[in-house]
# Entry
Amino acid sequence: METSQISEKFSHLVMNHPCLGRAPHRGRLHLPVSPACNIKCRFCTRSFNRRENRPGVTRSVLPVAEAMEVVAQAIQLCPEISVVGIAGPGDSLATDHALDCFRRLREEYPDLIGCLSTNGLSLPQQARAIAAAGVHSVTVTVNAVDPAIQAQIIDWIALDGRRLSGAAAAAVLIDSQLTGIRLLSELNILVKINCVLIPSLNGAHIGEIARVTAAAGAAIINIIPLIPQGDFADWPAPDCDDLQQARSAAERFLPVFRHCRHCRADACGLLGRDVSAELYRDVSAENTFSHG
Ligand code: CLF
Ligand code: SF4
# Structure
């Protein structure tokens, strides 16, 4: 399926959101306000630095009170910004910070698109609050819809004060994700699926992920090649053939986004032209501190 097949009701988003495949001239700002996570993915390594270009990395965690000032500065630096996203560095729903930010954004910048990224565990409880906060698009990371596969990708989930692991945790996570996708799509929120491609675990399962999430209401999917790190540091990254096969399998059921830059949690700018170093004044910081 082509990105042109995303439902007409989302046409305003499609024409203005750089992660839906049709608006490369528009930019996004990520506000790194969400440090905690409620699950443990085995490939995840969160980090604070300004070098690495990957999810889970940020210069620092931004206090919610400073977020609107950063939005103002980012728009000045990059007037093409049309989307404000919150993508960690942990999970955007594990703390209240992201929804607090989106409520302020709706008040102060009603023309900007609010975009939230999550592992989906809390979606059944929070879908209505997400809609009420003015979020327009939600990315749910779904790496398997089979608990036997998901159980090999996560270590544990934290739910209602308890820690679950193994197939029981995997089944709860998948059920929460699919219920959440259904609720969000009923609330007219565009749902994008991110899927980390780990060839030996879910390489033959990508079509099924796309089929099941499309049936739940997802509008588009993005396949992200595994960055070998954490428990998977010694695993091979997918090659071009792996990625092409996965995209072809997914494309039978959902449009595929092909321009992902695996953004940092504090990214800013066009997908191909990041200006976060200017936004956070990395150059002057380097001039000031000689010991780093
Ligand atoms: Fe950010 Fe993600 Fe929203 Fe885009 S990124 S929260 S949907 S505004 Fe985009 Fe970056 Fe790929 Fe994400 S290029 S990692 S898909
Ligand atoms: Fe890391 Fe995101 Fe997984 Fe949490 S949901 S463990 S932040 S990759």
Observations:
- Residues 19, 28, 30, 83, 85, 87, 115, 117, 139, 192, 222, 260-263, 271 surround FE(8)-S(7) cluster (ligand 1) (CB under 6 Å).
